[in-house]
Amino acid sequence: MRQWMAASRPKTCRYTCHPFCEPTDQSAYSLTLHPSRGSSCQIFIGLIFLPLEAHFHLCFHASCFFLLAATAVAPANARQFRIAASDLLAEFITEPLLAYGDEHSMEFKVDDIGSLPALERLRSDEIDLAIIAVPEDTDVPRDEFRVFPFAYDVAVIAVNQSNPINEISLASLGGIFGANEESNYTTWGDLGLSGWGSRSIKTLAGQNNKSISLELFKFSVLRSGQMKSTMASVKDSEIEGLLLSNAASIAILPGLPKSEKVKALMISSEIDGPAFSPTDDNVHYGDYPIRLAFYVVYKERDQARAQKVLRVLLNDDLAAALRGNNLVALPDTVRRKLTMDLDLGK
User: Which CATH code for domain 156-284?
Assistant: First the structure.
């Protein structure tokens, strides 16, 4: 079994794990939300990454500060709930938790650590809940924790609306973008597009410092993990303009295109297999293949207390915040079903 993340280290440390998330700064994302009244309750929220194939050398750079003194002297009480979160999600879940804390006289503390040490802390009762990112073909630890789906990150493949292509396979995407794949496609004619035989394919990738779309694409699509040197990486804010100016372009995006003149392609896992667009339902049920799943994980014994935080994590406001930041929330029907299950004690 490959190691999930770097082993935990005392006090201040830097973990090297997974490039799905570029570091936004060199310090931990640590946030304390103070209650407006009444007694306090601490919550440490942590987002963790489970194992990826070693050949990606995927690294998640996160500097974390272990608040050893605080955890040593702060006794757990009936209202205390400790969680931790990565910069992929922390800022999107903070405001709903703050609002809930104000209403229920709770104090939330958001701490950023790696996956292996975070799971170790969950097992040793140093935290009460974690949000973990689980790549495809990796087991979710359902045998020792309660697990709820939470959200997804995706890579979207987009072209000019005038391009006659509407769907494409992972293998064909590898031939377009990859440097050492089984196929090598350089013109749209290579893909059999009528009338576009001589038009050269221009490959693009739109990126920002919060996006993992390019690394997610490499992990999900490419066998070698190497992109062609001809691919142009640009700011995601510029990518749609480039697609509009050159109809022969194809791009990797961190989210759905905003322009009606740019379309997202449906993707199939197999050549000649069914293709699916990146809708909430298709992503959640695993039909859209270029995705990274996030789960909420906690111990069975903490179910009663965890329900209160889960309700916040599954509400409409937080789903809207995720969608507004190029993440895919659970389908509305799924979130309602999970909330009903909480009400029924399932």
Answer: 3.40.190.10
H-assigned helices in the chain: 68-73, 90-104, 115-123, 170-177, 213-221, 236-245, 280-284, 303-313, 316-323, 332-343
User: What's the order of all strands across the beta sheet hosting 328-329?
Assistant: 31-33, 108-110, 44-49, 129-134, 291-298, 146-154, 328-329
Query: Cβ distance 21 to 88 under 8 Å?
Result: yes
User: Residues 218-272: pLDDT tens digits?
Assistant: 999 998 889 999 999 999 899 999 999 999 999 999 999 999 999 999 999 999 9
Q: Report residue 312 CA to chain centroid gap.
A: 18
CA distance 237 to 204: 12
User: Whole-angstrom Cα distance, residue 150 to residue 251?
Assistant: 27
Distance CA 229, CA 217 (A): 16
Same fold, 13-153+291-343 and 156-284: yes
Q: pTM for the whole thing?
A: 0.77
Q: Which residues contact 165 (CB under 8 A, 6 or more apart)?
A: 159, 188, 191, 193, 265
Give residue limits of the domains in the chain: 13-153+291-343, 156-284
In 3D space, the residue among 56, 91, 59, 231 whose CA is nearest the CA of residue 157 turns out to be 231
Quickly state the pLDDT bin for 346 (edges 50, 70, 90).
low
Are 264 and 225 a contacting pair, CB within 8 Å? no
CA–CA gap between residue 142 and residue 331 (Å, rounded): 22
For domain 13-153+291-343, give the CATH number.
3.40.190.10
d(CA 4, CA 15): 11
